[in-house]
Amino acid sequence: MPTGVHLRDVRKQLFEAAERVLLRDGPAGLTSRAVTAEADVAKGVLHRHFTDFDDFLAGLVRDRITRLADQGALLQAAAGTRTVPDNLIDALTELFDPVTLALTSLVFFRDELRTRLRKGSGLPILTEAREMVKNYLSAEREQGRIAADAEVESLALSLIGAGHLVFAGRRRGTVPDEKELTTAVHTVMADALQRRLL
What we know:
The chain has 198 residues and is mainly alpha-helical. It is built from ten helices and no strands. The chain has helices at residues 7-25, 32-39, 44-49, 53-77, 84-95, 98-109, 111-117, 126-142, 152-167, 178-195. The termini are far apart.
């Protein structure tokens, strides 16, 4: 490992390596040894920058949550454009990419990691995703594109739950039929969209 490499560069290198391991081997294959081998760094590098492997995993999940905040800003900016279902379908497709799905499984099954990440109730990543969708739906409600009394918290929860079920549990490297997600989003949003016209 060359000297003078900034901590940020090492973290990024390790996180990118962890994502590749997740995609190739799934959550069960994600070990500190697998990450350092994939990153092509000495085994001790990870432990020089993180207190333990769960600290590293927490950093990896927080990095993904930061990216989710960026996605949320783009979704918020889309309010008032295209159709509400089209915006939601695109957002859910981007949200539930293979890395996010693998990280969600990892958080679910690793108690220590979940404890480190949890700020309240809910599963980290999915909780932030629900907030992202809720904020978007609130913006659409303000613009009159969904019913004025639409319960955006419940709609967001339903959309995240449905989206997660559509994408999760598939063989690695496969994606659901686009019609499945489209049907789920239209079903969840049907009442709020129809009642805005009354």
